[in-house]
Amino acid sequence: MQRSLPLPRFLGVVHLLPLPGSPRFCGDLGAVLSAACRDAEALYEGGVGGLIVENFGDAPFRPGPVDPETVAAMAVAMTRVRAVVGDDVPMGANVLRNDARAALGLCAAAGADFLRINVHTGAAVCDQGPIVGRADETLRTRRELFGTGAVPPILADVHVKHASPMGRESIGVAAADTLLRGLADGLVVSGTGTGAGVDLADLREVREVLPGAPVWIGSGWTPERSAELLELADGAIVGTWLKADGQLAAPVDPERVRRAAGCFA
Questions:
Q1: pLDDT digits over 89-128, tens only?
Q2: Which residue in 26, 90, 115, 241 has the most C-beta neighbors within 10 A?
Q3: Is residue 2 part of a domain?
């Protein structure tokens, strides 16, 4: 039986420029906010179903909790983005590299509707070093913040990109643990890195193990691959392809968003 998850199939990404405190911050938060609103407007005009705001420009990322100024800047940015897209477009928070507590705080205080967690269960070796999932802490904190009523859904990566799993479990076993033991609400399956295509064998294995699980593609979606990917997944998080000429550092192109939206109709 298919589990329902109240999120759109087509999720775009607002890649925030470097924030205060990060090595490449330009010294002008206003410029960061203007770029975020520009990309959010392009996503909205192009017909995106929902979006995720993340501190993409803050590399090298903290392996654990981010600094207070990062959360504060993200809260301001998400408030501005919400003003652009309105209340009807679901907005998620992804606090890189893996600060689920901060993302929950953004859901509670800055209007985020859901969160993405890169390592929710298990452990991975990333360019930040080892990162351990904290599903127990995250679920208890969510309960404390939101009670037993409506809670922000958790999209959790399985064998997350830019990382190697520390265990020897297959991606199907890892997915089952993330969903059934870590109590994630949905799963994200990606390629090896930002913009890298998903291995269809991995996606098929997750679907075979969990035929009713909500699964989103986390990287490498293109219109050319859309049909084969969406045959196995419920939706996709699209970032790189939506940029002008498909260049990661470029602004979001509303015409590309429109073309992508047609693939999810």
A1: 999 999 999 999 999 999 999 989 999 999 999 999 999 9
A2: 115
A3: no
Residues 159-176: tens digit of each pLDDT: 999 999 998 899 999 999
**Which phi-psi region, left, alpha or beta, contains residue 86 (left: φ > 0; alpha: ψ -120 to 50)?**
left
User: Rounded to an integer, what distance in angstroms lies between the CA atom of residue 84 and that of residue 86?
Assistant: 6
Q: Supply angle C-alpha 128, 131, 137, rounded to 5.
A: 135
In this structure, is residue 5 part of a structural domain?
no
Q: Indicate whether 249 belongs to any domain.
A: yes
Q: How many domains does one find in the chain? A: 1
* CA–CA separation, 217 and 233 (whole Å): 7
Would you say residue 3 lies in a domain? Answer: no
Secondary structure E strands in 45-176: 50-54, 91-94, 114-117, 123-126, 129-132, 154-158, 163-165
Taking the C-alpha atoms of residue 65 and residue 60, their distance in angstroms, rounded to an integer, is 13
Containing structural domain, residue 43: 10-264
Which of 98, 104, 38, 50 shows the shortest CA–CA distance to 75?
Answer: 104
